[in-house]
Amino acid sequence: MMAPYFVGWNVAGITLAEEKEKRRLEALFLTPVRPWQVVMVKGALALAGTLVMGAVMLAVGGKVPVRPGIWFLAYLLLTLFAVGAGTLLGLLFKDMRSMSIGGTPVQILLLFATTLPWALAGPVLWEVQAWLPTRPVVDLMQAGFFGEEVPVLRHALVMLGYVAAVWLANVSLVRRLSFLVR
Fold first, then answer.
1. Which residues contact 152 (CB under 8 A, 6 or more apart)?
2. What is the per-residue pLDDT across 118-137, written as a single tens digit (0 to 9) for each?
3. 34 DSSP 8-state letter
4. Rounded distance, CA 79 to CA 50, Å?
5. Shortest CA distance to 84 belongs to which of 60, 50, 128?
6. In whole angstroms, what is the distance from residue 167 CA to residue 88 CA?
7. 175 near 96, Cβ under 8 Å?
8. pLDDT digits 0-9 by tens, 17-60
9. Which residues contact residue 37 at a Cβ distance below 8 angstroms, ignoring those fewer than 6 apart?
10. Per-domain boundaries in the chain
């Protein structure tokens, strides 16, 4: 589960922040290549890297998911969210240093604070976490690996909502940045 955050998030975010730091992103936005194409290529590379990492982890781990379709759905949704969030932060921060300083706490919060077993604190908090990013994926991955019964459709729709929101924010930001450059 950490691969999407560490590979997808960082590849997309850090490469965009590096391009901005070296003033290459603005130069790319001035070429015939459309700004969204630049961002999508970085996102596609992060997506591909994360999916390969997931396949390697499955092969090395030696455990086959009981319900592979649900496991893959969870991994894909988390990857799309992590790549989108990394892309968003890469577009927002001006350089790699600020991306690391500002993005790491967000990444840790999303990875750990929304997934740690807070059930001991009470069922209300546990239920609230089911509506935050990452936690629905944990349940879906457990359902995929161990066959546990979880509300698959609800969890998938929650994550799909977060994926759509982060990518719509990226579209808006790319439009704004490309307008400022031209």
1. 70, 73, 140, 143
2. 656 667 777 888 888 888 99
3. -
4. 7
5. 50
6. 8
7. no
8. 888 888 877 777 777 878 788 888 888 888 898 889 888 988 88
9. none
10. 2-181
